[in-house]
């Protein structure tokens, strides 16, 4: 599954799932563009180190995914986009009648609208290159729902729907669009929540993982960022050339319930 000669842009990729996807794409030989809203020495060093590790070109480009013009500027600044991974996302939990308007607007902008802006800017580059892959990181919450996550669930359902539209619009071209729907993934952010949650419920950390965090994940195991990245690499491969407009769940059986 060599991706040598391809350029991949991964939004929200200086940590967590985004970084895991970037690493696996780089491992497969793709040049990678990392992104987040920050712009400090650590961000650029992260890209530099990743490039050295896998022997590929790696750059970091700052862009705020809550702003449409910056989403489009990210693609334009990169100069090429064979593979677009729309990954940037945030979360907020609240009853819908108490959901802060500014949080709703931010989640819709970052989790869904950024995918629209980036895809709209990337498709002309893919068409010019004669090849392209759009990989949207949706969620199990793009296929099902949970209480108190109205904005996140709405945004991820929207991403799944938009994936299908892009697939239909590019169906006769060598371009595909698919969504990966992870369940709970072991990221630094999730790991950091475990000790506090254990104290809150007076449980051991193992009990918190099984009974609270992974309550809806039948495997009772986290997915890993490497697994999400490996799925993205597969979707970019020739083996997946006729896979378009669909979702791949990496959720330990969550959406099988």
Description:
One of its GO terms (molecular function) is 3-hydroxybutyrate dehydrogenase activity. Pfam families: adh_short_C2. Belongs to the short-chain dehydrogenases/reductases (SDR) family. InterPro entries: 3-OHbutyrate_DH (IPR011294), NAD(P)-bd_dom_sf (IPR036291), Sc_DH/Rdtase_CS (IPR020904), SDR (IPR050259), SDR_fam (IPR002347). Helices cover 47% and strands 14% of the residues. It is of the alpha/beta class and 257 residues long. It has a seven-stranded parallel beta sheet with strand order 3-2-1-4-5-6-7, sandwiched between helices. Strand 1, helix 1 and strand 2 (31-36) form a beta-alpha-beta unit. The longest helix is centred in the middle third of the chain and has 29 residues, at 101-129. It is globular and about 55 Å long.
In short:
It comes from Salipiger bermudensis (strain DSM 26914 / JCM 13377 / KCTC 12554 / HTCC2601). By secondary structure, this protein is an alpha/beta fold.
What is the fold's blueprint, element by element?
Layout: E1 7-10, H1 16-27, E2 31-36, H2 41-54, E3 58-62, H3 68-78, E4 83-86, H4 101-129, E5 132-137, H5 150-169, E6 175-182, H6 188-201, H7 205-213, H8 225-236, E7 247-250
Parallel strand pairs: 1-2, 1-4, 2-3, 4-5, 5-6, 6-7
Helix pairs in contact: 1-8, 3-4, 4-5, 6-7
- Specify the structural class: alpha/beta
What CATH calls the topology of the largest domain is: Rossmann fold
Number of structural domains? 2
- Count the beta strands: 7
CATH class of the largest domain: Alpha Beta
C-alpha end-to-end distance: 32 Å
Low-confidence stretches: none
Question: How are the strands ordered across the major sheet?
Answer: 3-2-1-4-5-6-7
CATH superfamily of the largest domain: NAD(P)-binding Rossmann-like Domain
Mean pLDDT: 97
* Percent in helix: 40-55%
The main β sheet shows up as: 7 strands, parallel
Overall geometric form: globular
């Amino acid at each position: 599954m060599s991706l040598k000669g391809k350029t991949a842009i991964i939004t929200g990729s200086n940590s967590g799932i985004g970084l895991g996807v970037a690493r696996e794409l780089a491992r497969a030989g793709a040049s990678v563009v990392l992104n987040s809203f920050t712009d400090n020495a650590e961000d650029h060093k992260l890209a530099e180190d990743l490039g050295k590790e896998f022997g590929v070109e790696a750059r970091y480009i700052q862009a705020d995914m809550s702003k449409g013009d910056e989403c489009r500027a990210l693609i334009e600044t990169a100069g090429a986009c064979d593979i677009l991974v729309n990954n940037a996302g945030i979360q907020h939990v609240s009853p819908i009648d108490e959901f802060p308007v500014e949080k709703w607007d931010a989640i819709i902008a970052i989790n869904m609208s950024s995918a629209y802006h980036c895809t709209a800017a990337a498709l002309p580059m893919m068409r010019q290159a004669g090849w392209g892959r759009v990989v949207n990181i949706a969620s199990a919450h793009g296929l099902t729902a949970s209480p108190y996550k109205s904005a996140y669930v709405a945004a991820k359902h929207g991403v799944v729907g938009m994936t299908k539209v892009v697939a239909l619009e590019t169906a006769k071209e060598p371009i595909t669009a698919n969504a990966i729907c992870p369940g709970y993934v072991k990221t630094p952010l999730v790991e950091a929540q475990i000790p506090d949650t254990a104290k809150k419920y007076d449980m051991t950390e193992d009990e918190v993982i099984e009974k609270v965090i992974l309550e809806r994940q039948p495997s009772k195991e986290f997915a890993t960022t490497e697994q999400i990245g490996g799925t993205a690499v597969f979707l970019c491969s020739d083996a997946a050339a006729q896979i378009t407009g669909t979702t791949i769940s990496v959720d330990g059986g969550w959406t099988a319930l």
